[in-house]
Design goal:
The protein has no helices and seven strands. The protein has about 110 residues and is mainly β. The strands form three sheets. Strands 2-3-7 form a three-stranded antiparallel sheet, with no helix packed on it. Strands 1-4 form a two-stranded antiparallel ribbon.
């Protein structure tokens, strides 16, 4: 899917926001039309971020995400988790778009 960012989110009614100051097609994703009610995810500071050296661009690596339960129940092991392979790519700085649209949260 397409990655985008916004500068301002203005609540227009319960669950509806007007987003302005958009940057579209981030990280080499393709700019695309999005249907009303389409699924989306917010990527913010709560996500895992891991800096890499320039020499690691284009070098594949694997990641396993181990969930946890704050009550200590239902523990899982890395052996039972799926490994996801990622290959970092170089990106160019995003270019601004002077558009706005309304997005509905569900």
């Amino acid at each position: 899917g397409e990655m985008l960012s916004f500068q301002t989110a203005t609540l227009t009614s319960p669950g509806h926001y007007n987003l302005t100051g958009l940057y579209r097609g981030l990280f080499g994703t393709t700019i695309a039309a999005h249907a009303s009610g389409a699924s989306w995810a917010r990527c913010d500071a709560s996500m895992l971020r891991y800096p890499i050296a320039a020499s690691q661009v284009g070098v594949a690596f694997s990641v396993k995400a181990l969930s946890f339960n704050s009550w200590g129940a239902g523990g899982r092991t890395l052996a039972s988790e799926t490994a996801y392979t990622c290959t970092p790519t170089a990106v160019t700085p995003p270019q601004p778009y002077n558009v706005s649209f309304t997005i509905t949260s569900t």
